[in-house]
Amino acid sequence: MRILVLIAIGLLLYMIIGSFLRKQKRQQLESESPAEKMVSCQHCGLHILEQEAVQAANKFYCSASHLEADQQDK
Ligand SMILES: [Zn+2]
User: pTM (2 decimals)?
Assistant: First the structure.
């Protein structure tokens, strides 16, 4: 009978540690991916992620062609 008690305690510990590790992992993932910043294209107004936008002189564009088009307009 003693071995059954040991198995039960082992399973309980395994479940507690497992859920603790999962919780920690989830918190780590959340802190590693902050909300991504959106910017709008100066030429067409399209919203894009800042990291995907083309930047020139503190202005953002959805593509290099809109950057050129906007500079030609002025
Ligand atoms: Zn655009």
Answer: 0.50
